[in-house]
Design goal:
alpha+beta, globular, Aminopeptidase, 4 helices
């Protein structure tokens, strides 16, 4: 079940970085590390009511942040989805729950949230060294908008958007 995070979820979400980050690194993806994301990011997301978790049987299987916050690096991109657009950040699945549809469920939830809020669509980005997430964006029919660079990051990021039918 996907739901808004509670304060009792914060420890599990933050602790999950201890298995998620090494798993990403082992796959050649250095998108996440000691400086991003941190517990502070998730605490801020929780405080703003924008942290969502996929929980089953009392265990967090994955999580994401949904909000309207766009980094400055998004400004020059040729977006077709107008603002306000719901933005997906910090989406991850705990490694033991991968290949079980958790990430796809989180994406479907985000898309449904945009439609229910009568928004034109969603925006997001992912590291160019994250083939799993790139494949998921494509599978969910998101459109590649362009590339961007974040300071201190070696590789480019890919920007994506999706138009949704408003409910």
């Amino acid at each position: 079940m996907i739901r808004i995070a509670t304060s009792s979820d914060l420890g599990a979400v933050t602790a999950s970085l201890d298995v998620i980050v090494p798993s990403m690194r082992a796959a050649g993806n250095d998108q996440w590390g000691p400086l991003y994301p941190t517990g502070r990011h998730f605490n801020d997301d929780y405080a703003k009511g924008s942290l969502f978790v996929d929980e089953e049987g009392g265990r967090i299987r994955g999580f994401m942040t949904l909000n309207f916050e766009e980094p400055d690096e998004y400004v020059p991109l040729p977006w077709t989805v107008g603002q306000p657009a719901l933005v997906v950040h910090r989406l991850a699945v705990i490694p033991e729950f991968r290949r079980q549809g958790v990430a796809e469920g989180l994406f479907a939830f985000a898309e449904a949230q945009a439609a229910e809020r009568r928004l034109a669509g969603l925006r997001s980005d992912t590291y160019s060294r994250n083939p799993g997430m790139i494949a998921l964006f494509a599978k969910r029919s998101w459109t590649l908008v362009g590339t961007l660079k974040f300071a201190g990051r070696e590789a480019e990021f890919l920007a994506w958007e999706k138009t949704v039918a408003r409910v």
